[in-house]
Structure formats: structure tokens, C-alpha cells
Amino acid sequence: MPKITIIGAGGYVFPLTLIRDILSFPALQESHFSLMDINPEGVKRTYGHAQRLIEAHKLPATVDATTDLRKSLEGADFVIITFQVGGIEAYEHDVEIPRKYGLDQTVGDTLGPGGVFRGMRTAAALDPIVATMHEVCPDALIIQYANPMAINCWYSSDAGIKTVGLCHSVQGTSQMLARRMGLEDGTWTFKCAGINHQAWFIEFKHRGRDVLPLLRKTMNDYAAAARAAHAEGNISDELYGGGGEQVRTAIMNLTGYFQTESSHHASEYLPYFRHTPEEVAEWLPERWDYYQICKHHDFEGLMRRAEELARTELEPSHEYGAYIVESMTTHTPRVIYGNVPNTGMITNLMPGCSVEVPCLVDAQGIQPTYVGDLPPACAGVNAGSVAVQHCAVRAAQTGDRDLLYAAVALDKYTGAMLSLDTIHKMVDEMLEAEAQWLPQFER
After folding, report:
1. pLDDT, tens digit, for every residue of 191-231?
2. Which one is catalytic: 57, 168, 206, 275?
3. Whose CA is closest to 261, among 219, 201, 216, 319?
4. C-alpha dist (Å) from residue 34 to 63, 72, 76, 144, 228
5. Which domains, and CATH codes, for the chain?
6. 197 counts as catalytic
């Protein structure tokens, strides 16, 4: 049975969700889980929940908890990464310093100054993990759940470790689109490809028939209804999530294809939507600020949710992680969407960058499938993001501050708002504020 190491296991709910998902498969119910975190109290809490889950269902699975990285990684088959380096303290710097300069990031964990700096912190934490894996579990697979997904996956793949990054935006968006089009479950299929948080539904079929024209009409009608409701003062996310997906619909009208990440998140990746508070409100009438959400988390509610997971019936969520473990362990073939190195799957994106494509999973591991050229406008949008990621990965690898400045400056939203001198000043301020998590940039 596999040994599954979870690094960042001190989180309140997600690590336990992954454990529950894995134990939902009978073939994996003898697995050993090694929970590792630098926070002893957090990992102890997750260990207690995991033990209750195992005992409640009378399973033969075993679990240990440790702050010792090497001990946790020894003999691991799968290494699941779920941490956020620096926690809410570092995240505050990622979003509040750019806001002083006029950059209002709605999430700030993928591109822009927030995403780049989160990537630098994560890279510094990945260094000892990768080095230890080469020594004690060189054939293990990293299953990366931490953002910025593309930067993190590119970094560990370049270091010679098998890596797949997982996000639920493909599953979530495909279900939303099918629901909007009124398609019954089990009657529709799709093909999606691009990069994380900017992958494109290049095919969507209902009972084998192309419904991309219906998709475009449906989403334009939905966005128009949201604009009309907003004009009358009665829009809400309950009726028109993400402002009726006006941002994603505009991007679809630009490229021809709908993309995977939410309108709130997508608005900070491009230069068209966030110049002023008034413009933001036009596109996204209901403000959504993920930093504030995290800052005011109901931790008692999260604890109750963790207790609930430990008590309820075993069934997998829509996260792909458990399916990968089961497929590789039992030789059961499946298709998942994963973030992997671009070794020719998307032919008009940079070789070696991190791409999100359909992947076959079985006993042979993760096998990405060939896509070919993306539609030109889709590839053009992705290429700008890849440029940021490329500079960020090289900056993390070398400690080159000029590449760090370039990574932030090449971000489209940042470049639309700030001069190069201002970007340089902002990056210097962020470097100073986050120095404790960025050893690669020590002078």
C-alpha cells in the first residue's frame, strides 16, 4: 500500500479532505499517511481528525504526524503539497503593498506582484523538499495543490522531480457551463487546454454535437442580464455569480473560447478591467476580496467542518488527487486535467513551461496528451502569462533581483497601472517586508 506524505498538513480542512478522498477507495484503505508541517499544533490537530476518521470507519489505514521533513518523506510514493508559506502575514504584504501603489488584486496568488512573491516564497520552501526527495524518495510524485500553480510546478519539475499540479477550476467551470446551457449530467463532454487559471474550453459537446455556439450565446445572454440587473440596482452574486461572468464573457469574445478561472480572479490577469474602483464595480458589482476572506475566516466553523468530515460517509470530492493515487496504485486508467511540463503537448506555447492539459493516469504515472496549437488569441493571452512565470522561475532559481523586477513588470495588469520606476520601488518594498521568507534574495 502507498505511503502518502502531506506537507502543509496543519491546514484546517483541506488536508483532511484529501485523506477522506483517498480512503474512499477500498483499494487504498491500508495506506499510510505521514502528516508533516512546521506548525506542531496544526499537524497535531489534523492527526487527531485523521485518527478519528480511520477509527470511525474501522479502517486498517495508519497515520503519523511530524515536523521532521526527512522522516516524513522517507519511502514516500506520493508527496502532496498544500502549504501557504508565510500564512496570512505574508499574504497581507502581497496584497496591501501593491494596493498602496494602485494595484487592487482580488486574490493575488497567481500572477501580478502577489502571485510572483508567493511563488518566490514557495520556491524557497520547495528547495529542501526537492533535495530530500532526491535522497529518500526519488521516484515519488509531487501532487502540487499550492498556488501559484504554474510557477511551483515549473520549479519542482526543473529540479528533476516528477510533478503534477491540480486545480478544481476545470471541473467547476465545465459544470457551470453545462448547467447554464441546461445540459443533463452524463450527456456532455469537453476538451480544455492552456495554463492554470487560463485554460480554454476548445471543445464542448452535447451527445457528440458541438455546442460551442450555444455556449457563447448562453454566456453572452447571462452577462447581458447581469448588466441590466445591475443598472436597476438589484444584482447579487446569488443570481449572477461574478457579475454574471461579464469578465470571462468579455475574454471569450476576445479569444473565441471560455476560460477556466472565475471572473473575479481573471480580472487581475489582464489590463482591461481594474483601472479604477468604478470600472471594477461595472464589471464585478459584488466585491470579492480573498485576502479579507482569509483574514476573517471563521476558524471555529472550519473546525466544525473538519469534525463533520471525520464523521460522515466516505466518498471522494471532485479533487483529482485521490483518483491519481488510486489509478497509479491499482492500474485503473483515468483521465484528469493536470499541470505538467510542456514537452510538446501545446505546440504554440513555450517548451518547458507549465501547461494544463488532459492527462491519462495509470500504473505508468501521469501521461499528458497532445493538444497541438491553441487558437491564436488563446495562445497570445497565455504567452503573456508564461513570460511572467518564466522570469519568476528563473529569479527563484538564481536569486536574480532583475529577473524578479521583470517578472512583476511583465504582468499585464501591473504594466497597465504603474511605471517601471514605480514597479521597482514597489518590488523593493515587498522584498524588504518579506525578507524572512526569501533567502534566495539575500544580498
Report:
1. 999 999 999 999 999 999 999 999 999 999 999 999 999 88
2. 168
3. 201
4. 6, 6, 9, 16, 53
5. 84-287+319-437 (3.90.1820.10)
6. no
